[in-house]
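**Polypeptide and fold**
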Amino acid sequence: MSTKTQKTNRRKTLLLVETAMLTAIILVMSFTKLGYLTIGPLELTLIMVPVIIGAVTEGPAVSAFLGTVFGITSFIQCFTGSPLGAILVSVSIFRTLIVCVVSRVLAGWLCGLVFKACKKHDKKQGWSYVVAGVSGSLFNTVFFLGLLALLFWNVQFTPEQAASLGGVDTVLKTVIGIAAGLNAPIELLVCAVLGSAIGKGVSVALRRMS
């Protein structure tokens, strides 16, 4: 077996191992308190971090796959304890599936594309990782809230539902509350810092191993 073939096989193995590990991390974060930081009635999502890591280490295809896993787990949360998710599925399961899954697939895929484009111009291999971290979180927020507002804009909450969400009585008020409140800025900062720092560290380690 040639040296080139050995390197190719080693790279494929590393790709499969890393993808499996990041998938496992997403699953653990999704179904434990590690993935969500609750602030009042809303949740700050940290699960974009492994998706961003996949984007900077393996590219758009892997990050889109990880985004799909994230989206599916998010959809499952609608049936297992998310107050807003429970309301959405009671209105339309299909539209809720679109909001949860499509937004995360697009966020992961576009994050990978943005990093791929930026990396070509980042000679010191530094700022492109920060851009990936920021864009990953931003895409997730914009697509999730955008689809939520687009598909559920006219949904009114019952008094009981509004109470479970901290008093907001419509989806639009919920969207505005998330975007204008602490959730989106904090999530953006955390994902930018952790996603870029860990992603760069993993990238360096993979280059040494391959």
Notes: Strands lie at 36-39, 42-45.
